[in-house]
Amino acid sequence: MNKYIKEKRIFDIVFSGLLFIITMPLFIILPILIKIDSKGPIIYKQARVGKDRKIFYIYKFRTMTIDTKEVTKVGKVIRKHGIDELPQIFNILKGDMSVVGPRPWSIKYLQYFNNDQLRRFEVLPGLMGPTNCLSKDMPVTDKIKLDIDYIDNQSFKEDIRLMFKMTSNWMPILKYRSQNTYDSKKNIEKEFEELKKNLDNKNSINDNIMYTNIYYNSDTKPKQKVRSLYKR
């Protein structure tokens, strides 16, 4: 397993480096278009849960206005073609993410995972994951089971298989991604409610969560501190 982890890290660096070179024109053009279209930062940062429940910033091209939270004209194009995730190349190079792994989830989900479900945070989250190509109507608990199954059977061969599967599904997205696919706000709230309902003890949160202090960017308080939770 140690050999696999080392080889995977080398692959992550080489793959993300090559992907950055290939997509460099987008990293030059899109920032200009984003700044012309609306005020605000080029990159949108959001705190997510990573390996061992460590909190990190995930990077995306900003696609919404910072005040009204409406999708911008440029943002609609970026989302439709699935290129808002490209800045996560730098998450991979930093070591916060991997090319393949369970997708990183929002902090607010964490307290509604039972102890078995928390196992999905045993590995680095990925740009491409076992659940990327699944229907958004699939129960969130089933998606978590697939993530855990990936962890239990992870191998370089499985990573390559998932990459090919994801790439073959992503090619049509590059041409056009439907509104139902890229507008995920409704789906996120749906999954959040499902997690709350599926706790073993349905009327309480999980008391075994543990994650670290973080700072994150807020529209109203740029350096608002998130209270750390240490629960055993």
Overview of the structural elements:
The protein has one domain. The strands form three sheets. Strands 2-1-4 form a three-stranded antiparallel sheet. Helix 1 (2-22) packs antiparallel against helix 4. It is α+β, with helices and mostly antiparallel strands and 232 residues long. Strand 1 and strand 2 form a beta hairpin. The chain has eight helices and seven strands.
Topology:
Elements: H1 2-22, H2 24-37, E1 43-49, E2 55-61, H3 73-80, H4 88-94, E3 98-100, E4 105-106, E5 126-128, H5 140-152, H6 156-175, H7 179-182, H8 185-197, E6 214-216, E7 224-226
Parallel strand pairs: 3-5
Antiparallel strand pairs: 1-2, 1-4, 6-7
Helix pairs in contact: 1-4
Strand content: 5-15%
Number of strands: 7
Rg for CA atoms: 18 Å
Helix % is: 40-55%
Q: Looking at the structure, what is the overall shape?
A: globular
Cα separation of the termini: 28 Å
What's the pLDDT, averaged over the residues?
79
Structural class based on helices, strands and sheet pairing? alpha+beta
- Helix count? 8
Task: Name the helix and strand elements from N-terminus to C-terminus, one letter apiece.
Answer: HHEEHHEEEHHHHEE
Identify low-pLDDT runs.
172-183, 211-232
Strand order of the largest sheet: 2-1-4
